[in-house]
Specification:
Two copies of one chain form a homodimer. The first copy, chain A, is of the alpha+beta class. The first copy, chain A, has seven helices and four strands. Chain A is about 50% helix and about 5% strand. A four-stranded mixed beta sheet of chain A has the order 2-1-3-4, with helices on one face.
């Protein structure tokens, strides 16, 4: 089994996930700045030209970060990062999607529509990107209100993949200098908790 | 347990899923055209103002279609619609995300950015919406190439939630009169297979 990965938020999500599980895998570095993810040999692995990609020993290819993480969870069930029982697992799925679509997605819209790097990926509409940049603080405020019940992690009492997704969204927003309001007590406490975990520094 | 649902692609996904499982639930109809999903009482259930929403008997709320489906799968494991073993489950997660992000998402961009109904949901950039409309046929062509190995369903040999997502994307694209090229032998055969299932008519 080997992992094709590189810079960027999705490879980082999988690296944090692996660090939380205490697993490591042989890796193949894909250099996005050289455009290696668009080279014909790579497109044979993932026709969408995206990393990360997990290749199993029999040649089976798994793409999409969350699918890779879910497979690694099956091989390494402890600690569970997709929830512990049916309702817990439903809440992790719900919250991972909510932070992915609401927070990460809004940051993504800004970067896809304004960054030179993505000019071939989508038709870029910089006005839309800038409007979404202004929406990002509202999304963090929404998350702060949702966490006003004092729960330590996004999906409840336990750290989960939803915390990884939202933590990486915070990291990405800082990288692109997108405002995250300072006055978010619940988000700030949560983010401190997530960033104090050794997995945050996963290379 | 009860399901808040109404018109639109996400409620339809859950209805098809339930029909495939042979389960039914008490329902509360949420009238999107009256804006009931933005009423204060509904926003207490789902602060994002979206349907469907599953409420459990103890008052726990599960939002996000795929989270609702995953919970229903836990209660009703047969037939499995999220895959049968670890690699199968990884492929279903991968393909459900691929068709959701690539096909459904591109159709969604068009509707969100051009339809009066969504004018308060995102800052609308009709030029972006129209550009994404032109991308939809390319996404179907991509899926057709991916299915050239002759597999009957999107994630492999078995019908799964990925087929529900892609089938509903086809339905949504037709509703909004977005082109799906006629010359897609693999997609056409697959879509005929999906539409011939009784679940397609789930009300």
């Amino acid at each position: 089994m080997k992992l094709y990965c590189g810079v960027g938020p999705n490879s980082y999500r999988v690296r944090i996930f692996m660090a939380e599980k205490g697993v490591d895998l042989p890796r193949v570095e894909v250099d996005l700045f050289k455009g290696e993810h668009k080279f014909p040999e790579f497109l044979k692995l993932n026709s969408l030209g995206q990393i990360p990609v997990l290749m199993l020993d029999d040649g089976t290819v798994i793409t999409e970060s969350v699918a890779i993480c879910r497979y690694l969870e099956e091989l390494n069930p402890e600690p569970p990062l997709f929830g512990r029982e049916p309702v817990g697992r439903a809440k992790v799925e719900m919250w991972n999607r909510r932070v992915e679509l609401q927070v990460m997605g809004t940051i993504g819209d800004y970067t896809f529509h304004t960054n030179e790097f993505f000019k071939d990926r989508v038709p870029q509409f910089p006005g839309f990107g800038e409007a979404q940049k202004l929406n990002v603080p509202r999304k963090w405020e929404w998350l702060d209100r949702e966490m006003a019940d004092g729960r330590p992690f996004i999906a409840g009492e336990q750290f989960s993949i939803a915390d990884i997704t939202a933590g990486v969204a915070a990291w990405l927003g800082e990288f692109f200098e997108i405002e995250r309001p300072a006055s978010l007590p619940n988000v700030n406490r949560w983010l401190e908790r997530v960033r104090s975990r050794p997995s945050w520094n996963a290379q």
